[in-house]
Structures are given as structure tokens and as C-alpha cells.
Amino acid sequence: FVMDIFDNSDLEYLVDDFHGFSDSEDDEPFGEFDHKSEADSDFEDDLDPTQESDTSALEARNGKDIQGIPWERLNYSRDQYRYKRLQQYKNFEILFRSRQDLDKECLQVEKGKHFYDFQFNTRLVKSTIAHFQLRNLLWATTKHDVYFMKNYSLMHWSSLLQRSKEVLNVAKPIVPTMKQPGLLSQSISRVQISTMAVKDDLIVAGGFQGELICKRINEPGVAFCTVLTSVENDITNSVDIYNAPSGSLRVITANNDCTVRVLDATNFAFLNSFTFDWSVNNVTASPDGKLVAVLGDSPECLLADAGSGKVIHALEGHLDYSFSSAWHPNGQILATGNQDTTCRLWDVRNLSKSLKVLKGNMGAIRALRFASDGRFLAMAEPADFVHVFDTEAGYSQCQEIDMFGEIAGISFSPDTEALFVGVADRTYGSLLEFSRKRNHLYLDSIF
């Protein structure tokens, strides 16, 4: 299954290098995309895209496909195509360990719940993905404002104005505006953005050659940018923005050079760096800023002290490499996503074994997000499925968002009222918007 991710044929992708691990090169490429050049969508739409670029909630209720896929004109039904996808999709694995006991560990989940209603889909927004294992490329700052990557452009989408605009072009040379003694900033250009994070008015992005870019939303230009590592291909795999226990804002990065780095988010001075035994794919700080989850090219996930980098506990249970994590707002629950197709939940008060194991339908768990009120956990596979779990039901109840296409990122709005899903595909690339289902009953207004 080849979804088109890239509009720029001159981008240099490293995906093929990573798929050197795969032993199924003769098979159909029906899994996490393993192509280097521009590829086709499975769905070719010969209609004028301006005529059918959007789908509203009303149109969806009246039977229109939420992505605008014209199933009535295709040679197969949606159900037939879904069946084919599930049968033929190949999950990308690096460690070929036995998975036979994994299903026994997984929580039995009641699907079919309805926590978020489909609100809108716009094909005016086309996300792109630079690296098939890294999918943190979509962030909502309000229920109307979403930031995403499209090739060399950092874009902003306003769901109110139904308009997108370029916030930053990373193909052009970027000269940082903040100049101060001792600051290790440098000009960079033609950055392939591999990961990003947005908090308050700060956007932080990482690149394929170890770049780090920090931009304030309300100020022109880029405040700070640098190259974190001197070794080629030491990708910046993840970035996180968090408040330290002192209250000051921090930026933390994870790179292929096995190093986690901490910067001050006000003046971008380097504060600390911690080295581990393997490439670090993901790092996230706990809500109180005291702990960091460190995940990478190891089945083990580490819990470390955010100040010293000292490992407090190794979390054991995953069977492959991990690429995503998220903290419950109460700081007690950590979720880790792995290429073994599961998300494990850990209680920091008892780390001897995982609290629960949640399973996807067909692929690795590439993105995880808790809603800011802690009520829901969104879990994205590489393609086709986003699962929304009710934490108050012990994660045993789930809404399954079923669509087609590579998932570039997922994000709840800070007020939890909206959930956005970025889809990367040449024809059906889009931004899916869901709104939180509220039961505004008359009785509620009395009490």
C-alpha cells in the first residue's frame, strides 16, 4: 500500500536506509511506506478537487465519506477495501521477537464508543512526513488554530477562516534573530523537519541533520536555530517544551547520537545533556517537570531525573523499539508507544510492570496524546486508525476513528473541545477535525 507523502521530488529521504532491515522487499509495499521518490495515492480522484475539497458534519450525516472518497465510483466497497488493508498491511519491525503472548496481555476493550463527533475535513491542508517512524507533525494551540508541516513549509490553519498560511519556510536560509554572547546559534537552510512541538507562543522543530529551530509565533523570523550534532544523519527525533520545577520554560531534544539535551526556552542557552546507550527516539517531560521518559532503539523505556539525567527505573515489557510517549496531566500515568503495535501504561508509583497494555489494529503506535483534562488518550497507528480511550473507564472503552492514509500527527486542542488528525496522501491528504461530544441536557442546567 503506497500512500503519497511527498510533493517535493527533490527532498532527500532516508527511508530506504531504514527499510534495509526489512526482509520482505519482494512483497507488495503494503505497510509503513518504504519508497524514496514520489509515490501514488491508492485513490485517484478525477473530479475537480476544488469542488470536493471539504466534507462537513452535515454531509457526513447524509452519507458522504468523511474523506470525500467516492466509493460509489470505485471497483470495491469501503468494507472490502478495509478488509484488504487489514489482511495485507505489513507492520515495520526491527526486532523479530515472538508476539504470541502479547495478545494475552492486552486489555479487552469495548469499541464503538462515541466521544468525539466528526466536524469537518479539509483537503486544503496537506500534511507531509519526512521520516516514516516520526509522526509528531501536527499541533493545535486552540480549537481553531493548527500548525503542521507541508514539505519545507511550517503552516498554520485557521478552522474559523478556513484558510492556511505559511508561518516559516525552512528551505530558505534561516538566520536567527537572537544574538547574545555564548549562544551556539548558527544559520541553517533546506531543513527537512522531522518533528515539532508547540506550547503557548513557542514553536520548536527538529530536522534530519540534527537541526533545532525555535520560533515565537507572534514574532517575525526565527529566534534561535542550531545544529545539535556534528555527525551526519543524527536526526532530531523528538522535541518537547515543558516547565521545570522552578517554573521556567525548557526545551528538551532527543537525537540519534544517543543524547538528550536541555535548553532554556527564554534565552536558548544549553543547560544540560545526558547520554544513553542507544539512539533516543522520543523524550517527554512529566507535568511537574521532575521526570523524563526516554525511549529509543531498545525494548526498554527509561524513566530519568529531568535535572541530572540519572536513570530511576527501566520499564520492561515492550518487544521492539519505541517512538512515542505521553504523560497523563496528573503526572502518575505514562503511556509509551512501540513498534510491537502496543501502547503500555505505567504507574510511576509502581513501575515493576505495566499497568495496562493497549493494542492497535495493524501497525506500530507512532503518536500518543492525553487530553489536557486527562479524560481521553488518543493513540495513532502509522496509518488508518486513531483510537480514543476513556481513561475514567480504565481505558476499557474506546472510539475508533477509521480512515485511510498515513497519519502525520494527532492533537487535542488545549480546551479538549477539538481533536485533529493530519492525513498525508497525494489525493486525500487532509486535516480531519472532530469536536467533543457534549450531552447538554436540560437537567444539567438545574444542578
TrEMBL record:
Composition bias, Acidic residues: 40-51
Region of interest called Disordered, as start-end residue ranges on this chain: 24-58
The WD repeat ranges on this chain: 315-356
Entry keyword annotation includes Zinc: no
Keywords: Repeat, WD repeat
SMART domains: WD40
Pfam families the UniProt entry points to: WD40 (PF00400)
Protein name per UniProt: Transducin/WD40 repeat-like superfamily protein
Organism annotation: Brassica napus
